[in-house]
Specification:
The protein is mainly α. It has helices at residues 6-26, 30-52, 56-89. It contains 3 helices and no strands. Helix 2 runs antiparallel to helix 3 (56-89). The longest helix is centred in the C-terminal third of the chain and has 34 residues, at 56-89. The relative contact order is 0.07.
Length: 95
């Protein structure tokens, strides 16, 4: 995933921290949080699409960014957890 430089992250981190604080204040369970996170990601995506213009190239770029972020989340957060559980529970053997 192409990462932005540390000095560029400061433009977003304060606002993102505020969004995180808002979500964590209303979080009561996983299903509830899922809807809130989906809303946030969708709202950002359509807002960027509006700024860039309603052309397939730009819509596709926004879509690709969402997929890239999901892939990065899987690679950094989910895959290590799965490996941990694999080691803990041993592999599934065929019959």
């Amino acid at each position: 995933m192409p990462a932005i430089k540390q000095k560029e992250r400061v433009y977003y981190d304060t606002s993102l921290q505020s969004v995180y604080n808002s979500v964590s204040n209303v979080h009561t369970n996983g299903a509830f949080a899922k809807g809130h996170l989906t809303y946030i990601f969708y709202k950002l995506a359509v807002s960027f699409a509006k700024i860039l213009g309603h052309r397939y190239t730009f819509l596709s770029m926004v879509h690709s960014c969402l997929i890239d972020a999901a892939n990065e989340f899987y690679r950094k957060q989910i895959a290590p957890y799965e490996e941990e559980k694999y080691e803990e529970n041993s592999p599934v053997e065929p019959f």
